[in-house]
Design brief:
Pfam family, one: DAGAT
Structural class: alpha/beta
Main location: endoplasmic reticulum
EC number: 2.3.1.-
Enzyme class: transferase
Number of strands: 13
Strand order of the largest sheet: 3-12-9-4-7-5-6
Radius of gyration: 21 Å
Distance between the termini: 42 Å
Subcellular location: Endoplasmic reticulum membrane
Length: 339
Protein backbone atom coordinates (compact mmCIF):
# COMPACT_ATOMS: atom_id res chain seq x y z
CA UNK A 1 0.00 0.00 0.00
CA UNK A 2 1.35 3.42 -0.98
CA UNK A 3 0.38 6.77 0.54
CA UNK A 4 2.20 10.07 0.96
CA UNK A 5 5.00 8.69 -1.23
CA UNK A 6 5.72 5.84 1.23
CA UNK A 7 5.21 2.12 0.82
CA UNK A 8 3.53 1.09 4.05
CA UNK A 9 3.93 -2.31 5.68
CA UNK A 10 0.76 -4.39 6.01
CA UNK A 11 -0.87 -4.64 9.43
CA UNK A 12 -0.86 -8.43 9.44
CA UNK A 13 2.94 -8.84 9.54
CA UNK A 14 3.76 -12.13 11.37
CA UNK A 15 4.98 -11.87 14.95
CA UNK A 16 8.34 -13.38 14.01
CA UNK A 17 8.98 -10.52 11.58
CA UNK A 18 8.04 -7.97 14.23
CA UNK A 19 10.44 -9.56 16.69
CA UNK A 20 13.20 -9.45 14.07
CA UNK A 21 12.53 -5.76 13.54
CA UNK A 22 12.73 -5.20 17.30
CA UNK A 23 16.03 -7.10 17.42
CA UNK A 24 17.72 -4.75 14.96
CA UNK A 25 15.87 -1.67 16.25
CA UNK A 26 17.35 -1.99 19.74
CA UNK A 27 20.84 -2.16 18.19
CA UNK A 28 20.24 0.92 16.01
CA UNK A 29 18.90 2.93 18.96
CA UNK A 30 21.84 1.87 21.11
CA UNK A 31 24.36 2.66 18.37
CA UNK A 32 22.96 6.10 17.58
CA UNK A 33 21.44 7.39 20.80
CA UNK A 34 22.24 5.38 23.93
CA UNK A 35 25.70 6.84 24.55
CA UNK A 36 24.54 10.45 24.29
CA UNK A 37 21.36 9.57 26.17
CA UNK A 38 23.41 8.25 29.10
CA UNK A 39 25.31 11.55 29.26
CA UNK A 40 22.08 13.59 29.26
CA UNK A 41 20.42 11.43 31.93
CA UNK A 42 23.57 11.46 34.09
CA UNK A 43 23.75 15.27 33.95
CA UNK A 44 20.05 15.57 34.81
CA UNK A 45 20.37 13.24 37.81
CA UNK A 46 23.53 15.01 38.96
CA UNK A 47 22.23 18.57 38.67
CA UNK A 48 18.48 18.36 39.27
CA UNK A 49 17.70 15.44 41.57
CA UNK A 50 18.49 14.29 45.09
CA UNK A 51 20.14 11.19 43.67
CA UNK A 52 23.21 13.10 42.52
CA UNK A 53 25.32 10.91 44.81
CA UNK A 54 24.75 7.94 42.48
CA UNK A 55 26.49 9.82 39.67
CA UNK A 56 29.31 10.87 41.98
CA UNK A 57 29.88 7.26 43.04
CA UNK A 58 29.79 6.17 39.43
CA UNK A 59 32.26 8.91 38.49
CA UNK A 60 34.71 7.48 41.00
CA UNK A 61 34.22 4.02 39.50
CA UNK A 62 34.61 5.44 35.99
CA UNK A 63 38.00 6.93 36.83
CA UNK A 64 39.14 3.74 38.55
CA UNK A 65 37.93 1.53 35.68
CA UNK A 66 38.85 3.84 32.79
CA UNK A 67 41.58 1.63 31.30
CA UNK A 68 39.61 -1.63 31.34
CA UNK A 69 38.67 -1.40 27.61
CA UNK A 70 42.42 -1.48 26.91
CA UNK A 71 43.10 -4.28 29.39
CA UNK A 72 40.96 -7.14 28.18
CA UNK A 73 37.52 -5.64 28.71
CA UNK A 74 34.75 -7.31 30.70
CA UNK A 75 33.00 -10.05 28.71
CA UNK A 76 29.69 -11.42 30.06
CA UNK A 77 28.49 -14.59 28.32
CA UNK A 78 24.82 -13.98 29.18
CA UNK A 79 24.69 -10.75 27.19
CA UNK A 80 26.42 -12.30 24.18
CA UNK A 81 23.75 -15.02 24.08
CA UNK A 82 20.63 -12.86 24.49
CA UNK A 83 17.69 -13.85 22.28
CA UNK A 84 17.48 -10.36 20.75
CA UNK A 85 20.73 -11.02 18.85
CA UNK A 86 19.15 -14.02 17.12
CA UNK A 87 16.24 -11.86 15.99
CA UNK A 88 18.82 -9.29 14.79
CA UNK A 89 20.56 -12.09 12.83
CA UNK A 90 17.35 -13.36 11.22
CA UNK A 91 16.21 -9.87 10.21
CA UNK A 92 18.68 -9.82 7.30
CA UNK A 93 19.73 -12.73 7.70
CA UNK A 94 23.45 -12.69 8.60
CA UNK A 95 25.69 -15.70 8.05
CA UNK A 96 29.30 -16.39 9.05
CA UNK A 97 31.19 -18.68 6.64
CA UNK A 98 34.30 -20.63 7.63
CA UNK A 99 36.85 -21.48 4.93
CA UNK A 100 39.77 -22.65 7.07
CA UNK A 101 40.59 -23.82 10.59
CA UNK A 102 42.11 -21.56 13.25
CA UNK A 103 44.71 -22.99 15.62
CA UNK A 104 43.90 -22.37 19.34
CA UNK A 105 47.63 -22.33 20.10
CA UNK A 106 48.03 -19.14 18.04
CA UNK A 107 46.63 -15.61 18.01
CA UNK A 108 45.01 -13.96 15.01
CA UNK A 109 44.12 -10.52 13.71
CA UNK A 110 41.11 -10.48 11.39
CA UNK A 111 40.63 -7.59 9.00
CA UNK A 112 36.91 -6.97 8.49
CA UNK A 113 35.90 -5.36 5.18
CA UNK A 114 33.96 -3.24 4.37
CA UNK A 115 33.10 -1.05 7.36
CA UNK A 116 29.52 -0.34 6.29
CA UNK A 117 27.57 2.52 7.84
CA UNK A 118 27.36 0.82 11.25
CA UNK A 119 29.51 -2.33 10.89
CA UNK A 120 26.34 -4.35 11.41
CA UNK A 121 27.86 -7.68 10.38
CA UNK A 122 31.03 -7.16 12.41
CA UNK A 123 29.07 -6.54 15.61
CA UNK A 124 26.72 -9.51 15.28
CA UNK A 125 29.36 -12.03 14.15
CA UNK A 126 31.99 -11.18 16.74
CA UNK A 127 30.38 -9.27 19.64
CA UNK A 128 27.57 -11.81 20.05
CA UNK A 129 27.24 -15.58 19.75
CA UNK A 130 24.33 -15.41 17.29
CA UNK A 131 26.29 -16.82 14.31
CA UNK A 132 28.06 -19.48 16.41
CA UNK A 133 31.65 -18.27 16.05
CA UNK A 134 32.82 -20.31 19.02
CA UNK A 135 31.24 -23.49 17.60
CA UNK A 136 32.81 -22.93 14.21
CA UNK A 137 36.19 -22.24 15.80
CA UNK A 138 36.51 -24.23 19.05
CA UNK A 139 38.96 -22.83 21.54
CA UNK A 140 39.02 -19.36 19.96
CA UNK A 141 37.89 -16.12 21.64
CA UNK A 142 36.67 -13.32 19.33
CA UNK A 143 37.33 -9.74 20.42
CA UNK A 144 35.78 -6.95 18.36
CA UNK A 145 38.00 -3.86 18.43
CA UNK A 146 36.25 -0.50 18.16
CA UNK A 147 37.04 3.18 18.63
CA UNK A 148 38.19 4.08 22.14
CA UNK A 149 35.57 6.82 22.21
CA UNK A 150 32.78 4.23 22.43
CA UNK A 151 33.93 3.54 25.98
CA UNK A 152 33.94 7.17 27.08
CA UNK A 153 30.15 7.33 27.49
CA UNK A 154 29.09 6.77 31.11
CA UNK A 155 27.02 3.64 31.77
CA UNK A 156 26.89 2.83 28.04
CA UNK A 157 30.50 1.64 28.31
CA UNK A 158 29.47 -0.99 30.87
CA UNK A 159 26.78 -2.32 28.56
CA UNK A 160 29.07 -2.35 25.53
CA UNK A 161 31.90 -4.15 27.33
CA UNK A 162 29.60 -7.08 28.17
CA UNK A 163 29.87 -8.09 24.50
CA UNK A 164 33.62 -8.62 24.90
CA UNK A 165 34.41 -5.63 22.69
CA UNK A 166 37.55 -3.63 23.47
CA UNK A 167 39.41 -0.54 22.30
CA UNK A 168 41.24 -0.72 18.97
CA UNK A 169 44.22 1.18 20.36
CA UNK A 170 47.73 -0.23 20.10
CA UNK A 171 47.83 -0.75 23.87
CA UNK A 172 44.65 -2.80 23.75
CA UNK A 173 45.90 -5.00 20.91
CA UNK A 174 49.21 -5.58 22.67
CA UNK A 175 47.39 -6.53 25.87
CA UNK A 176 45.46 -9.30 24.10
CA UNK A 177 48.51 -10.52 22.21
CA UNK A 178 50.79 -10.64 25.25
CA UNK A 179 48.69 -11.08 28.42
CA UNK A 180 45.63 -13.13 27.39
CA UNK A 181 47.42 -16.29 26.30
CA UNK A 182 46.61 -17.94 22.96
CA UNK A 183 43.41 -18.48 20.99
CA UNK A 184 42.58 -14.77 20.74
CA UNK A 185 41.00 -13.52 17.52
CA UNK A 186 41.14 -9.73 17.30
CA UNK A 187 38.68 -8.34 14.77
CA UNK A 188 39.62 -4.94 13.40
CA UNK A 189 37.90 -2.80 10.75
CA UNK A 190 40.91 -1.16 9.05
CA UNK A 191 38.82 1.17 6.86
CA UNK A 192 37.45 2.90 9.96
CA UNK A 193 35.64 6.22 9.92
CA UNK A 194 36.72 7.22 6.43
CA UNK A 195 35.40 4.02 4.91
CA UNK A 196 31.99 4.52 6.50
CA UNK A 197 31.62 7.55 4.21
CA UNK A 198 32.24 5.33 1.16
CA UNK A 199 29.52 2.83 1.97
CA UNK A 200 26.69 2.58 -0.51
CA UNK A 201 25.02 -0.30 -2.34
CA UNK A 202 27.37 -1.74 -5.00
CA UNK A 203 30.28 0.42 -3.82
CA UNK A 204 33.46 -1.62 -3.38
CA UNK A 205 35.97 1.05 -2.35
CA UNK A 206 38.12 -0.03 0.60
CA UNK A 207 40.26 2.42 2.59
CA UNK A 208 43.25 0.14 2.98
CA UNK A 209 46.19 1.36 0.89
CA UNK A 210 47.82 3.30 3.75
CA UNK A 211 46.48 1.25 6.68
CA UNK A 212 49.54 -0.61 7.96
CA UNK A 213 49.31 -0.34 11.75
CA UNK A 214 47.61 -3.72 12.15
CA UNK A 215 50.18 -5.29 9.81
CA UNK A 216 53.06 -4.02 11.95
CA UNK A 217 51.28 -5.23 15.10
CA UNK A 218 50.85 -8.70 13.59
CA UNK A 219 54.57 -8.96 12.78
CA UNK A 220 55.66 -7.59 16.13
CA UNK A 221 53.69 -10.25 18.02
CA UNK A 222 53.64 -13.08 15.49
CA UNK A 223 49.85 -12.98 15.13
CA UNK A 224 48.55 -14.57 11.95
CA UNK A 225 46.44 -12.36 9.68
CA UNK A 226 43.01 -13.36 8.38
CA UNK A 227 41.31 -11.35 5.60
CA UNK A 228 37.52 -11.33 5.62
CA UNK A 229 34.85 -9.81 3.42
CA UNK A 230 31.24 -9.18 4.36
CA UNK A 231 29.07 -9.34 1.25
CA UNK A 232 25.94 -7.23 1.66
CA UNK A 233 27.30 -4.93 4.39
CA UNK A 234 27.16 -1.92 2.06
CA UNK A 235 23.58 -2.65 0.99
CA UNK A 236 22.01 -2.17 4.42
CA UNK A 237 21.56 1.61 4.00
CA UNK A 238 21.52 4.23 1.25
CA UNK A 239 23.89 7.11 1.88
CA UNK A 240 23.71 10.61 0.43
CA UNK A 241 26.56 10.70 -2.07
CA UNK A 242 29.16 13.39 -1.53
CA UNK A 243 31.25 13.89 -4.64
CA UNK A 244 34.92 14.67 -4.16
CA UNK A 245 35.38 18.44 -4.26
CA UNK A 246 31.86 19.19 -3.03
CA UNK A 247 31.09 21.12 0.16
CA UNK A 248 29.42 18.07 1.72
CA UNK A 249 32.46 15.87 1.01
CA UNK A 250 34.85 18.39 2.57
CA UNK A 251 32.56 18.97 5.56
CA UNK A 252 32.12 15.26 6.32
CA UNK A 253 35.84 14.50 6.11
CA UNK A 254 36.71 17.54 8.23
CA UNK A 255 34.18 16.48 10.85
CA UNK A 256 35.53 12.93 10.76
CA UNK A 257 39.03 14.20 11.58
CA UNK A 258 37.72 16.29 14.48
CA UNK A 259 35.39 13.69 16.01
CA UNK A 260 37.33 10.55 15.19
CA UNK A 261 34.30 8.80 13.69
CA UNK A 262 32.39 9.10 10.42
CA UNK A 263 29.22 11.18 10.04
CA UNK A 264 27.43 9.63 7.05
CA UNK A 265 24.03 10.99 6.01
CA UNK A 266 21.96 7.90 5.32
CA UNK A 267 18.55 6.31 5.45
CA UNK A 268 17.04 2.86 5.40
CA UNK A 269 13.44 1.78 5.84
CA UNK A 270 11.01 2.59 8.62
CA UNK A 271 9.37 0.44 11.28
CA UNK A 272 5.98 0.61 9.55
CA UNK A 273 7.06 1.49 6.02
CA UNK A 274 9.53 0.11 3.48
CA UNK A 275 10.68 3.44 2.04
CA UNK A 276 12.36 5.68 4.60
CA UNK A 277 13.61 5.40 8.18
CA UNK A 278 16.49 4.30 10.41
CA UNK A 279 16.07 0.55 10.10
CA UNK A 280 18.47 -1.14 7.66
CA UNK A 281 17.03 -2.82 4.60
CA UNK A 282 16.45 -6.57 4.82
CA UNK A 283 19.39 -7.59 2.68
CA UNK A 284 21.41 -10.71 3.42
CA UNK A 285 24.91 -10.29 4.84
CA UNK A 286 27.42 -13.09 4.35
CA UNK A 287 30.73 -12.71 6.17
CA UNK A 288 33.45 -14.97 4.81
CA UNK A 289 36.62 -15.57 6.84
CA UNK A 290 39.53 -16.34 4.55
CA UNK A 291 42.56 -18.55 4.99
CA UNK A 292 45.06 -17.40 7.67
CA UNK A 293 48.32 -15.81 6.56
CA UNK A 294 51.26 -17.15 8.54
CA UNK A 295 53.24 -14.31 10.12
CA UNK A 296 56.76 -14.69 11.48
CA UNK A 297 57.38 -12.72 14.67
CA UNK A 298 59.86 -9.84 14.51
CA UNK A 299 59.68 -7.30 17.30
CA UNK A 300 61.41 -4.67 15.18
CA UNK A 301 60.06 -5.08 11.63
CA UNK A 302 61.46 -2.89 8.88
CA UNK A 303 59.20 -0.76 6.72
CA UNK A 304 60.02 -3.04 3.81
CA UNK A 305 58.77 -6.09 5.73
CA UNK A 306 55.57 -4.27 6.70
CA UNK A 307 54.95 -3.16 3.11
CA UNK A 308 55.59 -6.66 1.76
CA UNK A 309 53.14 -8.29 4.17
CA UNK A 310 50.58 -5.54 3.55
CA UNK A 311 50.75 -6.18 -0.21
CA UNK A 312 50.33 -9.92 0.36
CA UNK A 313 47.36 -9.30 2.68
CA UNK A 314 45.67 -7.10 0.07
CA UNK A 315 46.23 -9.78 -2.58
CA UNK A 316 44.66 -12.45 -0.39
CA UNK A 317 41.70 -10.18 0.35
CA UNK A 318 41.15 -9.54 -3.36
CA UNK A 319 41.43 -13.28 -4.05
CA UNK A 320 38.81 -13.96 -1.37
CA UNK A 321 36.45 -11.43 -2.92
CA UNK A 322 36.96 -12.76 -6.45
CA UNK A 323 36.45 -16.38 -5.35
CA UNK A 324 33.09 -15.75 -3.70
CA UNK A 325 31.59 -12.77 -5.55
CA UNK A 326 29.66 -14.77 -8.17
CA UNK A 327 27.82 -16.81 -5.53
CA UNK A 328 26.85 -13.52 -3.87
CA UNK A 329 25.31 -12.15 -7.05
CA UNK A 330 28.13 -9.74 -7.97
CA UNK A 331 28.86 -9.30 -11.66
CA UNK A 332 32.17 -10.59 -13.08
CA UNK A 333 33.38 -7.11 -14.09
CA UNK A 334 33.06 -5.76 -10.52
CA UNK A 335 36.29 -5.66 -8.52
CA UNK A 336 37.57 -4.24 -5.23
CA UNK A 337 39.07 -0.77 -5.39
CA UNK A 338 41.83 -0.33 -2.78
CA UNK A 339 42.27 3.37 -1.96
Amino acid sequence: MRALGLEWAPLDVPLQRRLESFGILQFIISFLFLGVGCIVISLYVLLFTKYYWIILLYAAWYVYDYKTPEKGGRRVSFFRKMICWKYYRDYFPIKLVKTSELDPSKNYIVGYHPHGVMAIGAFLNFATDATNFCELFPGMKPVLLVLRGQFNFPFFREYFMTTGSCSCSGKSMEWHLTKEGCGNVLILVPGGARESLECNPDNFNLILKNRRGFIRMAIKHGANLVPSFSFGENRTFVQVKSEKGSFLHAFQHRLTKILGFGVPIFHGRGIFNYTFGLLPYRTSITTILGEPIEVKMNQNPTQEEVDELHSFYVKKLIDLFETHKSEQGILPDVHLNIV
